Amino acid sequence: MLVIMNPNATEQEIMRVAMFLESKGFEARISHGEVRTVVHAIGNIDVDKRDFELLSGVADVIKVSTDYKLAARVSQGQDTIVEINGIKFGDKYTGLIAGPCAIESYDQLDKTAQELSESNVKILRGGAFKPRTSPYAFQGLGDEGLKILRSVADNHGMAVTSEIMDASQLDLFMKYVDVLQIGARNMQNYNLLKEVGKIHKPVILKRGLAATFEEWLMSAEYIMAGGNGKVILCERGIRTFESYTRNTLDLSSIPVIKKLSHLPIIVDPSHGTGLRDKVEPMSRAAVAAGCDGLIIEVHYNPECALCDGAQSLYPWQYDLLYKQIKQIAPIVGKEIV
Amino acid sequence: MLVIMNPNATEQEIMRVAMFLESKGFEARISHGEVRTVVHAIGNIDVDKRDFELLSGVADVIKVSTDYKLAARVSQGQDTIVEINGIKFGDKYTGLIAGPCAIESYDQLDKTAQELSESNVKILRGGAFKPRTSPYAFQGLGDEGLKILRSVADNHGMAVTSEIMDASQLDLFMKYVDVLQIGARNMQNYNLLKEVGKIHKPVILKRGLAATFEEWLMSAEYIMAGGNGKVILCERGIRTFESYTRNTLDLSSIPVIKKLSHLPIIVDPSHGTGLRDKVEPMSRAAVAAGCDGLIIEVHYNPECALCDGAQSLYPWQYDLLYKQIKQIAPIVGKEIV
Amino acid sequence: MLVIMNPNATEQEIMRVAMFLESKGFEARISHGEVRTVVHAIGNIDVDKRDFELLSGVADVIKVSTDYKLAARVSQGQDTIVEINGIKFGDKYTGLIAGPCAIESYDQLDKTAQELSESNVKILRGGAFKPRTSPYAFQGLGDEGLKILRSVADNHGMAVTSEIMDASQLDLFMKYVDVLQIGARNMQNYNLLKEVGKIHKPVILKRGLAATFEEWLMSAEYIMAGGNGKVILCERGIRTFESYTRNTLDLSSIPVIKKLSHLPIIVDPSHGTGLRDKVEPMSRAAVAAGCDGLIIEVHYNPECALCDGAQSLYPWQYDLLYKQIKQIAPIVGKEIV
Amino acid sequence: MLVIMNPNATEQEIMRVAMFLESKGFEARISHGEVRTVVHAIGNIDVDKRDFELLSGVADVIKVSTDYKLAARVSQGQDTIVEINGIKFGDKYTGLIAGPCAIESYDQLDKTAQELSESNVKILRGGAFKPRTSPYAFQGLGDEGLKILRSVADNHGMAVTSEIMDASQLDLFMKYVDVLQIGARNMQNYNLLKEVGKIHKPVILKRGLAATFEEWLMSAEYIMAGGNGKVILCERGIRTFESYTRNTLDLSSIPVIKKLSHLPIIVDPSHGTGLRDKVEPMSRAAVAAGCDGLIIEVHYNPECALCDGAQSLYPWQYDLLYKQIKQIAPIVGKEIV
Q1: What are the extents of the domains in chain C?
Q2: Of C134, C190, C193, Cβ closest to residue D67
Q3: Do B136 and A239 count as a contact with CB atoms less than 8 A apart?
Q4: B65 touches chain C (CB under 8 A)
Q5: D73-331: same fold as D2-62?
Q6: How far is the CA of B115 from the CAs of B300, B327, B333, in angstroms?
Q7: Per-position pLDDT tens, chain C of length 337
Q8: CA distances from A118 to A115, A315, A321 (A)
Q9: Contacts of residue B236 in chain D, CB cutoff 8 Å?
């Protein structure tokens, strides 16, 4: 930790800072600059930096160490690769996941899966528990939905991913689901993070609407600290002043996360934009920026979808998009199956 | 719902919109303006407005009805007043809650409560389960903390409030806690909202870091729809581009919520600013803006606090503040006990 | 304009709204819904919608017409194409502009231009007047810089673009510069917008740091209303809560602007990210999303740049990037010379 | 400046940083911590910190010195007090400014000024040049407006303030106006800032919609560096994700600016909220938070205002508000005339 003093800080104030640091267990090393003095606190001790910001004569306090360790790039030599049903995410691989927003019926899911299998999709998405802003909106089929998801996927040789909303649903998800999704609203539901840290299935961790990169990686750290290293980060848009698009898809998260962490990062352009005609250009953009995967909403008949039909592609649109990104990937040194 | 057509929309496009509306159960009423045509969809039917935004010729779609009903001001004639241990929140009453961020020990809490009781505090706050960004930070005393909280409060004739983080903790909170707090990170934890909707204790619902007023009221609606009308909204700062303060305390939420809803709104200046020297001016400002209460962090010895000491007041600071806001309240037509 | 009444609005309140509308020159058409009444104000009259929001019984007021007319897609059948020195921006063409952030000397600019000409660059950028946050930072070479820019460009058969900061500089820019840039900080400098509306040179209008799509198009409208239709919009990142990157480059502006307007939209990944290693992935992403051009900072020796060296590419990096995006463009139906 | 190395940075990388620093003129002092090494760059030299962030092995770079010097609290012992027509802003004084958004006619302004003089207003505001988002909206009366403003104010023994939009208007403002306002959109119009730095009239500098505290103080520094120390900072709301209010009035700027600077800070609740019924609570809140002044829009007949009538108070509302804040000020150690 670095404590930066005011230009006019007195010797007494500097000494008080040093003594307070030492009382917390740090070694305090004082360095006088031309204008300001900096006190370098040596020691790997967890303190609240604001306690020092409030001391007289202090201008600013900087934490030198990041709080995430296991998720940090420096913690391991190579990129983490997560493999699901033969599809790889990370390093030079860009994996694809597709399916409807919500599971509505066996028929709806089966028709969609059938179309998607023709576009080489090997991982099917579908929500059984839906986090809805309104208590009066369709909340998903629940347990029944997961059973349908499993059954349809088995039919088509697919793996499945679905959003878990509460730790109490874990047994159910262990039984039916291959990859657990944690939604943006739950990115800091620490009970849930701790629980999925104890299992050994891959977890897709979506970025919270207002989460910084550091907070996002800290949430990944919660899962990894529990022993589960198969974390896939998922950018899905942040909230900004611009309300024309549902969210602002922050594609710069791709190169940033690749610098800070070894974990794979995928993009959800469906929630990230909220409108079908924006999904295609932003999917292509994500691949061109080097993302490790995409998760895209597709419905065999979006106009009749019970949920988020407006952001779901038609199967023929998905197929066209698939052909485009398959061409873009190798230009940026990536490979799509 | 109102569907606004492009200036150059064709008759065919307008008819298509009208027919699609009628297929969903609406009556479609077409009104030609000088530049644009508007289609008024009559009927109280839940649809995703984006399905209409994607139709050819459509410029914009406006939802006429708010999704919150029970929380809306128009749903009842008078302001809701929530009373806890003789302290009232709402209408002309401004209630006060104070205590440390986290319960650290019987001694710490008792000393703090003793000091606060001398400043007339009747509701004690204290966290037993702490949502921490880092998995390596102090996570609270858990069950043991709640027992200490109850015991100390009983000693001083106080009621207590504490943050519930997961629906699985509900039995525990029913036993020891008078007012449940739902934190900013859990504002859209719908499982938790549904569960606290079934009980009859008051609930303090904090505004999410990136929650609009409408989303906040929708989360209140989740609780009210379950049958629990004792919801107290709590402004605690939003995330903006400015990172100097921990959050940006949005005091305009006070007059806005009072216009939109009958529910009481209180302010948490401690989390809202994150620094002790900002807590006093912002507390006074909140009262001057007409808030229905304050929840303030106070520690008998903030420099040794295990959590958020930097934003905790010294008891003598709280006492001074109490005297100031007691003078300000009547100027704005409010009353502090 | 549409005035949406509260569910419990009285007949009297509705009539008051209708009469106030008619006093302003509108025809008021009342439409009763199941829950709410809507008053459709017919007439193309400029009023402040908040005047109606404040009337008793009113829930919301919606402006039906956009304020931009000339910039709106509906105002003309085809995409605007701006051509500069044989390079086209708009419709199926993606144009490229490159050069250093600031003009530092003849030698620096000439060396950079020499390298760029080998990568087929035909439009050279370079700042002579630099908007710097600090009054103590390098402010650019001024007039002298523009002369160097012109002379170097003529040497290499290039056209030039540079940022104009004040209307008083217009004569100078008319003499030396082919394409005027208006920077993000000046997007709402209305005096400047009006002045460049009177000339016939193309104008690159950067998006303000906190400008909505609508405000951005309104600023384009200022220029077009003066008679200059050669406006190129330039996305360069917006300010969000995330401060890791200098700004958040909002690539969804590409499909959004293409829906709302016929004007070409280009992207500035250098200012949009602020760091060299983010410029390449985001440039490729912008092309894959269908942008009409890129403006990229390149310096023959970035480590010695007087300004923004950290976000400038080395010439060899630009060349590599050029080869990548030339491959990506045709996949999305675009053409790079 | 402090260069923080990665935990696994090599000795070679550390030496490269040190040598690069010394090549720029710094003395490099290396301090090894338990986990990371920090290089303290001694010397008051202006460099772009990103140049160091890009070096291999570097995790982060921290600027130790603020770029504003004259505006910084540490630059002088006491708060700056600006006095205009007997009204003081700063230290223990809270000054008041009121008047219409725009000057519409002699009659309109005179009627408003007459009413305001009865509430003890000594400084009249009124816009002659209006920055409007739309080129088709009322742009103000221009020169004629300023003459009316001067004449009406002289009639009532008032001083005047008005917004200057361009450096070319300076002569005009020197003749007619006592206090120059620089609007939010022009906070970083550096040509204008430099010009008003050369005069000796007080300047009200509004905070830009997306300006950090540091950028705001840097803009004040531009004026002060020119020799004009009479700068009054004016908080008028920032842009956030919440669009219910026109802007989010950030009252925490009051205690923050008071910590960082000696300059007076006033609040504009009219633009900060955009709606009349929010102006009163937020004005009271600003005074309770300790602001040094308020600038409030008042119109003798807001319903007929040509501009921003919705956010203008009726004179009787202003009078009521004046009486309230006169009571609140002494509670927080301030004085209103």
Answers
A1: 2-62, 73-331
A2: C134
A3: no
A4: yes
A5: no
A6: 7, 21, 29
A7: 889 898 889 999 999 999 999 988 899 988 888 888 889 888 878 788 888 888 888 888 888 777 788 999 988 889 999 999 999 999 999 999 999 999 999 999 999 999 999 999 999 999 999 888 888 888 899 999 999 999 999 999 999 999 999 999 999 999 999 999 999 999 999 999 999 999 999 999 999 999 999 999 999 999 999 999 999 999 999 999 998 888 999 999 999 999 999 999 999 999 988 888 999 999 999 999 999 999 999 999 887 777 777 889 999 999 999 999 999 999 999 999 8
A8: 5, 9, 13
A9: none
CB-CB under 8 Å, B309 with A165: no
pLDDT in tens, D239-273: 999 988 889 999 999 999 999 999 999 999 999 88
Report residue A9 CA to chain centroid gap: 43
* Angle A89-A94-A95 from CA coordinates, rounded to 5°: 65
Helices and strands in chain A: count of H runs, count of E runs = 11, 14
Q: Which CATH number fits domain A2-62: 3.30.460.10, 3.90.950.10, 3.30.160.60, 3.30.70.1140?
A: 3.30.70.1140
Distance from CA of D292 to the nearest CA of B (A): 13
DSSP A35: S
* Topology of domain B73-331, CATH: TIM Barrel (3.20.20)
By the CB < 8 Å criterion, does A307 face chain B?
A: yes
Cβ contact, residue pair B188, A131, below 8 Å = yes
Reported confidence tier of residue A59, pLDDT bands at 50, 70, 90 = confident
SS (H, E, C) chain D: CEEEECCCCCHHHHHHHHHHHHHCCCEEEEEECCCCEEEEEECCCCCCCHHHHCCCCEEEEECCCCCCCCCEHHHCCCCCCEEECCEEEECCECEEEEECCECCCHHHHHHHHHHHHCCCCCEEECECCCCCCCCCCCCCCCHHHHHHHHHHHHHHCCEEEEECCCHHHHHHHHHHCCEEEECHHHCCCHHHHHHHCCCCCCEEEECCCCCCHHHHHHHHHHHHHCCCCCEEEEECCECCCCCCCCCECCCCHHHHHHHHECCCEEECHHHHHCCHHHHHHHHHHHHHCCCCEEEEEECCCHHHCCCCHHHCECHHHHHHHHHHHHHHHHHCCCECC
Distance from CA of B284 to the nearest CA of D (A): 5
What is residue A18's DSSP assignment?
H
- The answer to whether D59 faces chain B, any CB pair under 8 Å, is no
Look at A38 and D64 and tell me if their CB atoms are within 8 Å.
Answer: yes
Note whether B7 contacts C36, CB cutoff 8 Å: no
What distance in Å separates the CA atoms of residue C164 and residue D2, rounded to the nearest whole number? 35
β-pair partners for A5: A58
Distance separating alpha carbons of residues A145 and A162, to the nearest angstrom = 10
Buried b (16+ CB within 10 A) or exposed e, C19-28: ebbeebebeb
Beta-carbon contacts of residue B160 (< 8 Å; ≥ 6 apart): B123, B124, B125, B126, B149, B150, B153, B176, B177, B178, B179
pLDDT of residue A255: 96
Q: Say which residues have a Cβ less than 8 Å from residue A132's Cβ, sequence separation at least 6.
A: A138, A139, A307, B190
The answer to whether the CB of D126 falls within 8 A of the CB of D306 is no
ipTM: 0.91
| Structural contact between residues D101 and D289, judged by C-beta atoms closer than 8 angstroms | no
pLDDT at B91 exceeding the cut of 80: yes
Q: Where are the beta strands (DSSP E) in chain A?
A: 2-5, 27-32, 37-42, 58-62, 82-84, 87-89, 95-99, 123-125, 159-163, 179-182, 203-206, 231-235, 265-267, 293-297
Tell me whether residues A275 and B190 touch, CB distance under 8 A. no
